[in-house]
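[job 4417] fold queue: 2 targets
>>> target A
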Amino acid sequence: MNRDYRSMTQDTLFIRSRKPFPDRFAGKVAIVTGGSTGIGKSIAEELCREGARVSFTGRTASTGQETEEEFRKAGYDVMFIQGDMIKEEFCQEIVDRTVKKWGKINYLVNNAFRFIDKGRDATEEDWYNVLFTGPVAYARMIQKCAPHMKKQGGGAVVNISSVSAHIAQPDRWTYNSAKGAVHMLTKCAAIDLAPDNIRVNDVSPGTIWTRETLRGVWEASPDAREAFFKELNRRQMMQRCGEPVETAGAVLYLLSDDASFTTGHELMVDGGYINMGPQGIKETALIQDAESKK
């Protein structure tokens, strides 16, 4: 798809949507960490569109409150809980407030994750922050939600990992190691919670347009903006990057009864990126793309 990236804005970048399954999650309660923006916000919204009641978290009060107001205006039953996932007491607060408000927990989506990409210059504080807001917080949330899911006869957890859990990338010791830990946590939790009818899976997105991937883009010149988008698109098998709603659809599938016999599984939402070798996409595709612009 040829798009005019020079004149693109934050309001025109996202063009994709999905058709919800009405009432698929009616009467269910979900927690989505990091649900104020980006992928987490899209997951929370899509769950609401299919009937769920959703608690979502975020570190920035103003952003979370804006999202909560937006959701409430749309008629969704939501609760924003502000805090930092690095704190175990906050993890407990999320669970306690959700159960107090709605009486149960059916689903957990672990999404909040500090984007700390450091290499040989990583400090002890960098490691602590990325691990304790990432895989450690994921584990804490699973531990605290599992008893409530068991009371409901079972439940489902989806951990958001990344293609970065599988590949080496320059100057990313911290982020990639932490995402790799999420992948193994998913498998171990899945085998331990299976007797309680709690399924645990993970979704690994590739390059998705979010606040992190778009940092600084809108302040750049039109030429620089166009070059940025084209370069990232060129690296993808599908010659485009993904949108948050495309990750949300995969997460909702794994939470739903359609995935009732799926646990300990990783679902890649990367446009085929992880399957490409060093040659990338076919040169003919690049030539055709260039020819179409003449």
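>>> target B
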Amino acid sequence: MNHTSLSRAARSVQPSAPFSLYVAEELRRYDEHLRDVRGLSSGTRRQRTSIVGRLLRRKFAERPIDVAKLRPEDVRRFLADQLDARRSPSNASQLASALRSYFRYRTICGDQVGGLTAVITNPVHWKLASLPRALNPDEVDRLLQSFTTVRRSPKRGYAIVRCALDMGLRAGEIARLLIGDVDWHAGTVTLRGTKSLRQDILPLPMETGQALADYLQHERPHTSNPAIFLRCQGGCDQPITSMAIQKVIKRAGRRIGLMHFSAHALRHTLACRLVANGSSLKEVADVLRHRSLETTRIYAKLDTPKLSTVPLPWPGSGS
């Protein structure tokens, strides 16, 4: 690859990161693998390429990447230094996941990396240790009502929240919605380019449809752009970004006093409501479009009425 191509790769991975051209090109190929083969979101890809980039920069600096020259001790020292800089379970999990993912990718490329993977220890993490943060009915009502006091694009914000709350859509999926994706006669929404790299057709709840129609008819700028949700600044004919979707939802949470509220909490709220109404874990997984039922298992802990019927031995009974 020539110098011009390497320079382009360096800019495309992470503009502010001082990675060498060789490291940037390696990260570009790895990022394409995460996007096209694994179907990971842009946020997850940025996190993993950043961690892998720090490892490669440390080992190779300005030299071409040769994974065969990586030693288990290199990985061990890198992990130790990274954890010294920030000791937390989440950081440890992110480091382990990113490095394992990269070494799996290098295995596909034909490298022998068993010795490198062996030194990556799993951080202690109890499965299903915490319940998802979800809104209670009163908080949901206050969140939706909070848009009546918003001056800028209240109908857009309300429709965005309804998409997440009623359909469990991720921020990126909301941002990518096109006008043609909504079949008003059939009452369905088609999702394209989802996290699972498939096309999904979901039922459109009445409240969500009404919110979308209200926004489209009375607030959305007149433009030929097919995106449903458009930016309010920097050109109103540009599609909104997933980051902006998250900010709209976070600001709504702050308006009702939820300072650590995230867009993902609305997906949790939908799941909790489904469980409370008697839906099975398989049904919850289908609505949230989880690729694995294992991801949905955490919601089993929310079904406390059913759990209370499970017979437990009385202490000291010997049974």
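[job 4417] complete. Note on B: The longest strand covers residues 188-191.
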